[in-house]
Fold these 2 entries.
Entry 1:
Amino acid sequence: MTAIGWLQAVIYFLIILALTKPLGLYLVRVFEGGRTWLSPVIEPIEKLIYRLCGVRVDEEMPWYTYALAMLGFSLAGFAYLYVLLRTQQWLPFNPQHMPPMAPDLAWNTAVSFLTNTNWQFYSGENALSYLSQMAGLAWHNFVSAAVGIAIAVAVVRGVARTSAKTLGNFWVDLTRATLYVLLPISVVGGLLLVMQGVPQNLHAYQTVSSLEGFSQQITGGPMASQEVIKELGTNGGGFVGANSASPNENPTPFSNFFEMLLIFLIPAGLVYMYGKMVKDTRQGWAIFTAMSVIFAIGFTVAYWGEAGGNPLVHQLGVAGANLEGKELRFGAAASALFATVTTDTSCGAVNAALDSFMPLAGLVPLVNMQLGEIIFGGVGSGLYGMIVFVVLTVFIAGLMVGRTPEFLGKKIERREVQFAILAVLVTPVLCLVPTAVAVLVPQGLATLSNNGAHGFSEILYAFTSTNANNGSAFAGLGSNLFYNIATGVNMMFGRFSVAIPALALAGALAGKKASPMGAGTFTTHSPIFVGLLLGTIIIVGALTFLPADSLGPIVEHLQVLQGKTF
Amino acid sequence: MLRHIGTSIRITIVTVVLLGLIYPLAMTGIANVLFPKQANGSLVEVNGKVVGSDIIGQLWTKPQYFWGRPSAAGKGYDPTNTSPTNLAPSAKKLIDATKATIASLRKSDPDAVGPPPMDLVTSSGSGIDPDISPESAYWQAPRVAKARGLTLDAVKAVIAANVQGRELGFLGEPRVNVMQLNLALDGKKP
């Protein structure tokens, strides 16, 4: 590890810290329906959308209507993308003459983008028309992120409101998240990426002859406009197979740094927004602190593992950090930081091959996802996952002192705890059960690219990532019918089996009366609370996943130390 | 409920037009005015002929040129098949491939000083990495100098002139763009 490597991470964190409050305040304004400095430009478009789509702006929805609207919209988006991928050969903007995508792969890709997972069994540069990229994938990048933000906002309202029956209007939240937050940042950020060298054109690939006479096809397409929202919306599905490792998507160390900032930007802002909307900014910062601690531990382990290098390669007489699967312009530090950031959130973009990370460094993204990507979190999904953990922590703390647990003056009772437990339990079930099935059937083992413990890690990573709607991969695992369907089902359950209990929990909380805080009330912004929250997250995560993780990365680590190969 | 299904479909159509068509097409227009070179792939021309892109690595095999890193993209440096090897640190295939790369580099570069640097024996994340480390360039300098009949110092001077430091002083790693370096050696650098 080098000082300059650490400096990148520290400066990165400080910039995020500085942006958290201003963006958080802006988000409060957007979702409380206030005017922003962008209103003069955007308001006419906003009103036009409401009129065209029949949205009643002042209609308030109870949690189940909000959830149904969300599900209906997701279903429409799924059907649309599936049809688009199957018919792209007849549609415009297809200069490379891409054929239709196979049905099982199209199903997998459509689910993948609808759920904000962006698991990549496809390789965009040789499978997708430009129309499928921009009007299919990039469109989903916008709206699936907006859906995530909308759910998070609804959950926060549930916590903030008292004796209320409703959580807001899904259509309004969706539209405002898109128009006031995602689109303006994408326009500015996308142009910055073009300046750095990300292509933005519509013409066919250009065949060139190199100075040595080799033929090469220079790829292109509307990349920058998609790249920016891929990071900002914590989507992560690449325009090309190599994702953000490709110099097309991520040409310079600066573009890399900027893309990492985009990933954390909105999730961090949402945490501040939460504090502000529940009228307890100290609590927002308490959660922010807990998130930062886990982020710092993750980066440290990942960077340490990668900077140390591979002892098996060192035995061949070459020295240095592990550069297998890494781009030289990023090196070990920026690759380890990217891997941590992308799995702290539900982004899943990668700028290096996670499959080739050292075993313990590769464990970091795996554990980050197993904890539920609550460290800053996906755009939206991280915050509501964290609120579930907060409720659980308050409940456990209440049990310890033998008082009825209270959260911001609201009594936490049976129903709230049931919903919270439900949301916490689905993650391990949906990660571990499919993994167990996959190692038992031949189709599950047919497409592994590595043997031994690492082969198991590839399978565990696939189901963890699809369930967590992350989309990063130990990408050696190939696509086949079994994985296309199994990971597709997994992504679907992963998205909705946390979102719906979280909305239900919010609905239950919104209906409660707030009692004034007394001397005996457990405060949810003290250092003790931060410690308890961290403890809850780590105990729930570690107890559930340690056995499976031991069979994969931890065994492989010990084997590498002993000089064993497979 | 029915009303919400109708809204679902209508809002899908409206946002596809706005975010899926107007936004990317407008961005393409603006980008081509503000940054035409980058928007069209940072192409490199020599004598009026496009020979490649600044941001995409190429396969180099002749002794008088500097070589890039091993590539797992298609048959090598294929931008339409970008991919890493995805081999595990414990994979026998990885260790065997690295061993073979080292042996072949030692054969092609008998006068190089010390073992080859790490980046020259490991595959990149994309398979089209355009850069190598300054160490890797200096390591290859004796071979290039010999093949071109130049002094070692002359080649080293060209390398030194083409090293890009860390961006803003702290981002990423120092690097050398292989195509720019080779163009400079040929005296064709624009």
Note: The radius of gyration of chain A is 23 Å.
Entry 2:
Amino acid sequence: MSMEFLMASGIGALTAAGLYLILLRRTFPVVIGLSLLSYAVNVFLFAMGRLTIDLPPIVSSSAAGYTDPLPQALVLTAIVITFGMTALIVVLSLRGFLETGTDHVGRETEAGKPASEAQREVAAR
Amino acid sequence: MRIALIVLIPFIGAVIPPLAIRAGRNVCTAATAAVTGLALLLLLTDVPAVFSGRVPGLRVDWLPQAGLSFSFFIDGLGLFFAGLILVIGLLIIIYARFYLGRTDSMGRFFCYLLLFQGSMVGIVLSDNILLLVVFWELTSLSSFLLIGYWHHLPASRAGARMALIVTGAGGLALLGGMLLLGHIAGTFELSELLTRGEVVKSSPLYLPTLILILLGAFTKSAQFPFHVWLPHAMAAPTPVSAYLHSATMVKAGVFLLARLWPVLSGTPEWFLIVSATGLVTMVVAAWIALFKDDLKALLAFSTVSHLGLMTMLLGFGTPFGVIAAVFHVLNHATFKAALFMSAGIVDHEAGTRDIRRLGGLRRLMPVTSSLAIVTAASMAGVPLFNGFLSKEMMLEEAAHTVYAGQAWLFPIFATAGALLSAAYSARLVWCVFLGPKRQDYPRHPHDPPLGMWLPVAVLASAVVVIGLMPAIVAGALVERTASAAVGGALPQFHLAIWHGLTPALFMSGFALTGGLALLWAYSSLERLRLALPRPDGMTLFQGSVAGLVRSSRFVLGSLADGGLPRDLAVIVLTTAGLALAGYVQAGPGPLAGTRAALPATIPAVTGWLVLLLACGLIVRHHYDRLAALIIISVIGLVVSLAFLQFSAPDLALTQISVEIVTTILLLLALNLLPRTTPDESSTAGKLGAGALATTVGVGVAALAYAVMTRGTETISDYHIEQSKPAGGGTNVVNVILVDFRGFDTFGEIIVLSIAALTIFALLDSALHGAARRRIRTLRFLPRAGDPHPLLLTVVTRVLLPLSLVVGIYVLLRGHNMPGGGFIAGLIVAIALLMQYMASGYVWAHRRARMDAHAMIGGGVMLAGAAGLASLAFGRPFLTSTFGYFHVPLFGEIELASAMAFDIGVFFTVVGTCILSLATLSRVEERAEQASKQTQVKTGTGAP
């Protein structure tokens, strides 16, 4: 096994798990799924600079070489933006839940049922 | 430049009427007329040049890659049409001053009218065919505004929408045709394109090009079966009908046919399609016009019929046909605009435009009646008026046109068209102006003020003067225009009333007498019409629109059912399908490349196994939301370790600190959300989603593997080389962020701030209304005896100054070593958030010295100022400078202006984290208080 294989299959696993979760009908799994997808995308972008070990892009006279810094710079901001996005959709889904009493995102015709369900859950706490 | 001004002046001038109306209706009219007059004056200065054979032009590149340029030229054809548009526009403006009522917004009306005028002049003066299409669409839009001017009337709205849909669809077809045409000819400039007719006609793409362009022209010029929109456009105020729907806009299609005549005409396809469409339109519309009782509807169908006549003439593909068409454009514009305005006067003064309620107006409105009778005679083709001349030229051409081997077809139907035209003209004159005076007009008809009939009189005198002395008055103009349209020398022709005993004269005479006879037999004719099928355009149109809406609803409904899962599945499937298509197209190849692979190590395999296990667990156990949260933070940890392993210390630091903030945030949110996700998907649904997810996952993995095992060429060598000498730092990632790609980073912190402010807005308002009531009903079972354990409180407070120092250290060293504004900001934010967690919102908020909003705003402004500072030194935005300074005690230190930028980033990040999470914890605090109060009240507190 090579590092490249580990990395690629890891990206694949993150993507698959993320996609499965965003296809569910409640907000929270969608948020979690999007986080997983963001990991996958960020690591994928990072991997486009190819994998290197012990060659950090810090200029020094003793360095044997450098890895590609550009994908790193892109991914660094992407990670921070991911945080902003996650925070926003979490709060959006929270506000939606507080406003409507349901965190259901499925078909409109099913919306009637989950409302009472949510109340039941709240009561069960 | 002067040419562009002719087009631009009406556009620029369009802002004047809405302002000038404050000074009164006369000032507004004068200002609008002055705008049109100025454009006309500029146009007239080019007349000598055009008549001496030169073609003034202007060309400025706009989108050269797409072939679009801002170019204009004035040749005979452009001059003729532009002159027509501006002169009649001037008359219409004067007429509209008296036509519009007190309650009509005149400023708005003239504003639209000038917009239309500019677009129209743009069409006829454009050199670039794509620019022409732009103006073409602008006329559709401005005509929509004008038809819907009385937008309180349902008929206006329906008519405007129909016109927009029909002409807009035609405009799209035209765009396609023009793109093809430019592609075939290799140029989008008309002045060059007109010389490449042979290339175009011999191209295999000629027929599709021709059909698309004809669709554009036929919809605009209301040719059968697209004529349906024009009668409904008569819901517009009469000045609009007179201007757009008789004199100018509907002639745009005719103009286009004439403009592209040298390029497209002369082929059998052109002749068969264009002449037949024109003939059918001419006869069918004239037949319908004969039975219309509404004065404007009669004139509308008559316009359609005359447009058919012009189209047919151009379709013949002979130079004489072009001469006759151009001459008829001129004649029709004069008599039809005058007739529309007369109809408007009748409507205005008598209170109705229903032919059955009118009659005998000759005695009550002598001036209007005389003018209308003169122009109607011209429409009928009575000798000594201009309509007669061009109609006879038409008959002459039709007389020796053989269509598909049938020599009788065109002469007979052309005569029939002329006959019907004489009949409806006679009916109009007889039923409205002649006959006995009535006692039951809705109002007391009398002649209108001078301003209203003067424009009609000007046009009517043109009708007579051209009719009497055609060669002297119009000969040179028609010659110049037609030769520009043909794109070469014209055969000898002479505009005259008497050509001898030609077949056309007999056809003409037959048409006139036959027309009168038809009027005599009108009642039996009407019975015949009632017996024939009469499809209603509006019903057909609405039916097809409804059908389109139904089918698009069906497609939409199958793509999106109002729920998120379906939407996302469609997006994922589409993306995966596109990726697959790309893969298939590229053809098979080995998955792995030739780049030397790195051997896997034991720690790496361990991390990999943990990741796979975590992914499996989260799919299996996501119903327990808290468990899902714990698993996802494990995954985040593995990802940061992977970054660390593969030479990305900055990323590892960022990922781990973001992980902490995100987990805190999700925990806080989860406290207010249901704790579990119900298992509500069917097994089939789960399998489907699982199959889709697995397929895409495998595809992504394969893609990543294929890329990683292949070599790469990077542009980063430049960044590494220049990092120290140009950016003044050794941490290349940080230098890229704050210097090379500083503008990106600036944009990103702005996005981040917007996200934080949105979160604040969403949650701050959640403390009111329905959300507030819901919060109050939430019950919190106490999980720990003490919400703020002493140990945690003390430790976080001790850690705070320490974390702050670490944060500042990481910030300062970031330019040279792993660290920087983003990471430092996250570290400091975590330290501060710990205070909220350990000691509660109220305690922490009271002690917060800095407002999070101020931090965000200040951070963005500081970063912006750091970027602007370089402008002061004459360098581009965000150029960084640096220098070395000796500070006592610290020794040599380096200060880069990028540091100020990074500090801005730092504050933005801190502010964003604090604002989002503190707002969330505030909501939490409220909810918990409410919960406690109810528990105390009901006595159901914790044991």
Note: Residues 69-100 of chain A form the longest helix (32 residues).
